[in-house]
Batch of 2 targets.
Target 1
Amino acid sequence: MSEAYFPVGPGLGPEENFLSLDDILMSQEKLPSRAEAALPRLAAVLGKGAGAGQGNCLPEGSKLEIPLWLAKGLYDHKRRILSVELPKTYKEGWRTVFSADANVVDLHKMGPYYYGFGFQLLNFDNPENPEIAQTILQTFINRFRRIMDSSQNTYNEDTSTLVARLDELERALFQAGQKGLNDFQCWEKGQASQITASSLVQNYGKRKFTDMDH
Amino acid sequence: MGLKPSCLKGVKTCVSSGSGGGSSEPPALNDKHLKVPAIIITPPTPTGMALSRDTRQPAVAHKSRIAKISGFCPTIVLILTNRHKVDAAKRALPKQPSHIVTLPQQPLTLWLLQGDLGPFNPGLPVEVPLWLAINLKQRQKCRLIPPDWMDVEKLEAIRDQERKEDTFTPMPSPYYMELTKLLLNYASDNIPRADEIRTLVKDTWDTRIAKLRLSADSFVRQQEAHAKLDNLTLMEINTTGTFLTQALNHMYKLRTNLQPSESAQSQDF
């Protein structure tokens, strides 16, 4: 019950959780975008060093692939610097696939942070935002049943095939379900009343008494 | 269906379990006559009065009691803790005095902080809390008598009714799982047809868990805001509780993003 490390969960919403590792990894995903203004001396930084004109200037209208954290920082409502396009998994074509049958899609391949990234996309003004939000919600609802059943019924088995198609948020849910199941089985076997060494203490890796005599 | 949905504006889910079959309160034991037994028991505090027995409220209490019995026999310290934690593996013994034991040894009376127990006379049945019954049984000092509902015909009827209905049927005891496990582990020789009882209770448990999952799935699918499930026991709530609350948290955040949020604060530089 007492764990050595309580992870900070991802902040699901327009703002990320600053301390969450999931959010940090998620914001590294790349986003296709377009520069609206000329960006002097930034061509080398943004990865277009070879084809820039006039030294190091990035001309207006050039296409970029930048990570999410950079896009969020540079984005402005007056749209002076950057305009963001949707990645292909959030576009119309894939949205119809999700609405048809969400259970079949391999969400891990779509970017392991499908839900989190989708949330962050809502930050950028985009006429399709309501549909994106609705699609994400419906996908989650449709896949919920399968996650619940698979996490509550596999005990002591290899679950790698089951979690392969889930994205990170669903994997966290799967692990919560597994933990509940493991605790119940542990109670049923009577291990709950046995005293075991806490995981915190085991992680310290204390040397045993016999090791100190030499 | 196991749930009665109502579409309210609030998005908090509320799962409440109605109280299962009530456990009978034990008769107040006011008998203070010691029949000059061979062992003299002295109460732990100087008061000679018996403290009134607590009325049990299941599912929220956090109490601990220490009772000390001394006399000619060596000191026995009984520490009783009653914790109801969310973790299913840590379910503690329920404190309902609902088990009848008979002692084949010399008579005994226990004066504990929570109340008096006894007098125990050999060959006569007495109601005691579960923890004491298990302890005495492990020391082979008594024989347990199973509760009324732990009977093959009754359990079969309960199981069939559970399978027929869509909602949850009231269970004979709010702790039927724990009681079954403990009694069948320690006292199976005192319970007739123990294996069949174990199978029947497991069948009932599986049916109820399946109904719970079905309810959870339809709850999520229809995006209801409020659900009421009657006659659920704590054990069932705990097995699916963590997963369900996390999933519903995520769903809540997903739903609040459906409304276009007001413009985020941006720094001007």
Target 2
Amino acid sequence: MNLRHIHLLLTLHVCFSNAATSESYEETLQLTPLPDGKVSARFAFKTLASTNIEENQDSDDRPQHYKLFPLALGQLLRAQSISELHLSLNAGKWDYDKWGYPIDQSVASGAELWVWMSESSSNGTSVDQRWKDLSNGLAGLFCASLGALDETRTTKPQWAFGPEGDLLSSRSYHLRHAFLPSESVCTENLTPFLKLLPCKGKSGLSSLLNPHPLFGSNWHGIGVHVRPLAHESMELTMTFGAVLDPVRLSRGKRDWNFDDIFGRPIGRACPVASRSLIKVVLPAHAAYQIAPEPTTVDKDGATYDLTMLSFPLTIGMSWPQEERFQHSIASPSNPLSARRIITGGSQSRGDILFHFINNQNVSQDVVCVETAPWFVNYFLNTRRVVVNGIDREDIILETAYTLPRNHQPSLLETVLRLPAHSVTEMSMSFLKSFIAYTQHPPDAERGWDLPAAAISFTLTDSHPQEPARRLYTRNLLIDLPTPDFSMPYNVIIMSSTVIALFFGSVFNLLTRRFVWVKTRATDIVRD
Amino acid sequence: MGLPKPILRLLLVASVLSAYFAYDFCSEYQASQNDYATKASVESFFSARKHANQGHTNNWAVLVCASRYWFNYRHMANALGMYRTVKRLGIPDSNIILMLADDAACNSRNKFAGSVYANKGRGLDLYGENIEVDYRGYEVTVENFIRVLTGMGFARVWGRVADSMPRSKRLLSDDRSNIFIYMTGHGGNEFLKFQDNEEISAFDLADAIEQMWQKKRYNEIFFMIDTCQANTMYSKLYSPNILATGSSKLAESSYSHENDDDIGVAVIDSYTHHVLSYLESVNKTSKATMQDLFSTYSYEKIRSHAGVRSDLFNRPLDQTLITDFFGGVAQVEVLYEQDTEQQSPGESASLEEVPAPSLPTQPPAVLASERPQRMPGFKDRPVSDQQSTNSTLNTVKAARKREDSGLLHAFKLWGSSLLVGLLLFWTLSR
């Protein structure tokens, strides 16, 4: 009787423990030929784990048995009690006018990290301390200098960057956001990225991530997104996006295949992936050829299921009738586009200028989130909004401005209602402070990178469950007045010389005595 | 019959008890003697570091490229060349701290994205597909370098106990680690420039390494530096067990080796190119020594007077293998089946039953000749030391057994005292 009970308990335990750590992994690659001859490739590696770290933060001793979810990332999230995490490392400029809206929103150049974390944690540390520990931990995990995301770069936006996962309504959560615009992305960021994947870049779609062609592309970006889902589960999406240029590589033709753009075919499928798909968006005009035959073709494009194909696999698209690719001037128009520039050539002040273009038939509410370091001071009273040439202050619905204090950055959030079919210009003056010479970066003459402005909006025809879209402007360089860094040396040398000369002269004057020296008579005659 | 009955009984009890106590006292005395022997062996084990070199058990490498900007491409190629060599010879990424002050591979000026080459004609890509850079860009500062070496935490002064610096950025070495420190950049008389903004002086470096010695963070250090007037940088070192080499002497510049026309800048420095091309002939099992490397230095090839400083190093250079510093060679001791039943000689007869140890502390003599050359410390230890270690082990075990029966001992003590008291009372009451 006892043995049967034990057997039953063990079976139940095994069942429950299996159910408690069920994970699934799927990978997708979406290839989109763009109108200007380039190809946008976007890899998405999605792992769904059914243990919600955020939910179990009170029971810290629960073991983390992961098979597919990366343990290094899971331990970091558990230790800092992070609910939602979005990290992106991008290089290049995403051209919205030519390439449309990207699938992954965070395309700002440099590093961007924003997290939602709950007020209370398992070990009682504050939100800011956990933010600092998280950025240091991610810096070690991804070989990026994210330790620089300290209080001089961290902001708390209130109207944008809303949670994209299902956070508990019974808890209060805090948002922390930081940009690092000067961060470079290279193979050392890709190496740990691949090591976190279940197939580790050896099989499946991750084997296509060859650093040499990818880091030579026009735009590339790494993304790590963790969000909690309902019913105690957590979704990790690791993305890699690149915009490759077959016209430049082949010097004229826009035909592409895996050997051209990735440098290698797919050797074999990833055995632990529940789904491994390649989606190719088919161009509107029918003059192309695609090889091999896709598994399914629908309105979204052609889909290849790796479980039904033979390996090594190379997918390619060609335009046989085209001799050379002809670039066209016309570009697709987006519903909304934005630009930001700095005007003014003075070293002490400048003007920042936003351009919003609303191509829709309806007015559009946007939130413009802008952060600036503490030594760039905006003058809100100089803000002017001009719509199609007419001054219109009334389209500013709300403004939230966080003053720069204690070397923390300033945060300006503006809610604007852009009229239909309009070009809106918003301009503002700013003053550049003179900062201490130790606070300049080592290459001070280059200037200071101003992080991208995020423009958050929701299109009227979008799905209600969809999160808000974000547009990013370019990073800008602010030319700060730099001191002459050799001045401390000069001052020391000059003052030391002066003091030595002065002291020496005075000492000689006071203490030197001139005496007659007797010499022999014969010496005088000789002289 | 001569003595009255009670006194006889008392005498009997007293003799039994005294016999018991004598036995107890004797064994305690023996135990205290063994304790003394234990203490002496333990003391000699920990102080052996000062007297005999026990050899290293793990390898670390700290590779620093201290200059930024595209025209210092060759310094980054220097550091990456060393990184590749050290990885090839066996040191894993977790034991390498690579500091690159600028990004050369994915620099927008680099025509060959994701690649760094060290020779004209771009034969070998040093960046590859598997690289981990621990400190990059603005993080390469004098402060961070000294913190890495001395292991000082990065906790805020007013903050938490645990610091949040990740493990991959820390030098987690111990007193059996051999560390290879390589620095390259622009330098001068007793200084090295970091990022064209600040300098580290030879005195700072010497003090940092002395801190490492005091904190027992290294067994031996091999310091290599490739800058102008490099030999002055190691002239101020004063800690033991350091071997240092530099590319040029006082008032002499180090030169670059060659340019690549498509990259457009110099791609490697002359001294580092010479060392790397020598190390190409070394693999993990090589028995090449440091003396072999230093003998290849010549002014004609390197175009500067490369120097060596070995007065702080207490091993002869012709017995110091290159893989002692450049490689991560693991030393494996193979134990055969018959050793587990063999009783180690010199075991003192302990008073209590001690079970035979499952692992012998002394490997059988048949393996002595096959023992690898790389652990001179182990070979140099005299045999009596090993025997005393054996007896130490057994007496430690015996002492532990004694400690385990402390409760029984106390019971015996109190019980016998009680018995004596009762008997006395009974005798006297009669």
